[in-house]
């Protein structure tokens, strides 16, 4: 498939790391703003989650490590050393019949010093006992070291129907939020300036050449075009960061947890 007709990748979800105590109390903390969907325990037994589903089919995942997880095991986890109370990562996905191999091959063939690992199995069990299965692929550099979470998307590729993992269309009441938020409008990524040239080339391969300088478009699962549906990167001399802009009926700001503030447009 040529670049000209290749579909845009699909934004799947955004990950916020919290402490396990906050995850347990999350209903009380966000119920005036958003409806929460129960999550479950992941296959490795280290983490559990809760979700905010949006009508565009994207969701926010609150994930926490269990308090009794062995510290050494946690340190080896992709997210084990990251700061709690922050947006730490985000994922693209593909349509149910999508093949990840051509995409990962294009990234490798671009010779930008970035590649995606072969997808590895993952999953969790919902509170109702339903087992969810997927595979995950993360980016690495030319030395084979993991690229820090958030610089590039990881890929979450369902093996069981996505509606079981993200029932936004079969349980639409979960997407009706008090804030009027309908989905994700934009992701703003701040990364070290030295990383921008290689990341720009990688995003050009993944999303297609940027129609604006360092701004790329993505699709959402519902096909909605209500939001901007853009990803942009900018350079920083400080810590890397992910900022979300939400799409909603009411413009303004939403502080979902102390220090985590979303603009709504």
UniProtKB/TrEMBL annotation:
<protein>
    <recommendedName>
        <fullName>Glyoxalase-like domain-containing protein</fullName>
    </recommendedName>
</protein>
<dbReference type="Pfam" id="PF13468">
    <property type="entry name" value="Glyoxalase_3"/>
</dbReference>
<dbReference type="InterPro" id="IPR025870">
    <property type="entry name" value="Glyoxalase-like_dom"/>
</dbReference>
<feature type="domain" description="Glyoxalase-like">
    <location>
        <begin position="11"/>
        <end position="195"/>
    </location>
</feature>
<dbReference type="InterPro" id="IPR029068">
    <property type="entry name" value="Glyas_Bleomycin-R_OHBP_Dase"/>
</dbReference>
